[in-house]
Design brief:
alpha/beta; 36% helix; Rossmann fold; eight-stranded mixed β-sheet; two-stranded antiparallel sheet; 25% strand
């Protein structure tokens, strides 16, 4: 029996290559990307967002999932040479995003015309080895398995932000799934400037799931949104990014 098994393994290696079938002990573990947000790094169980895997942030409207996703993305622009946002709904605003401390020179915005194109773009970018890929919506289920494979090969950190409940296919494909539930608003001078949310680990293929942490999230401009100082800051940011190549913000 052992000889027959070895012959079958040898045949697979000859036909498909050495990487087509490997022992589990030879598979590398997920490399953590420290996000700088202690609650996220702790709940991941490995000290950071897993690279080479699909991760998920989900929650109802107003839970803070997008605010947290953008905070993670802003950090990524400071540490990776290429960061991509896939924005099928065309709701991403790079100028507001810049107020989070993001480096727009490392950001590429992709606005695909339909879900199929979004899936193809995500797989191609992960296969090419983009540092961090943020998806502001789910992808068609046929694209998820190729995306998993592409990310695992290149080491890209893939993050999807969706509503609650998360699409079943995406929830299944994710290695780390964090849910957010707002517990309170943060007010200053009569204006909402952020929120407090309960961050829970619903799924974790890398460590024990089930942990929770309280998290305080501040909005990008907060109470200064309509003040003169905020206007001056925004104008300065626009001046700094005016010379960026136009293709970085073009639809593809």
């Amino acid at each position: 029996m052992q000889n027959e098994l070895q012959r079958a393994i040898d045949a697979i290696h000859v036909r498909f290559g050495d990487q087509a079938l490997v022992r589990a002990t030879r598979l590398p573990g997920a490399e953590p990307w420290p996000t700088g947000i202690p609650a996220v790094d702790r709940l991941s169980g490995i000290g950071g967002w897993p690279r080479g895997r699909i991760g998920l942030l989900s929650g109802r409207s107003g839970s803070g999932k997008l605010t947290l996703g953008l905070a993670l993305l802003a950090r990524a622009t400071q540490e990776f040479a290429q960061v991509v946002v896939i924005d099928p709904q065309r709701g991403f605003d790079p100028w507001t995003f810049a107020s989070l401390g993001a480096d727009l020179r490392n950001l590429t915005l992709v606005r695909p015309p339909n879900a199929t194109a979004a899936g193809e773009a995500a797989v191609s970018l992960a296969r090419a080895g983009v540092g961090c890929l943020l998806m502001l919506d789910s992808l068609p289920e046929p694209a998820l398995a190729p995306l998993e494979s592409a990310a695992a090969r290149s080491g890209s950190a893939v993050l999807a932000v969706t509503g609650e409940p998360a699409p079943q296919g995406l929830a299944f494909a994710s290695s780390l799934s964090l849910s957010l539930q707002r517990t309170d608003w943060i007010w200053e001078r009569g204006l909402p400037v952020g929120l407090r949310t309960l961050l829970g680990c619903r799924k974790n293929k890398l460590a024990a799931p089930g942990g929770e942490a309280e998290l305080e999230l501040r909005y990008a401009l907060g109470a200064r949104l309509f003040q003169a100082q905020a206007v001056r800051e925004t104008q300065a940011q626009e001046a700094n990014v005016r010379e960026l190549p136009a293709w970085r913000f073009a639809a593809v």
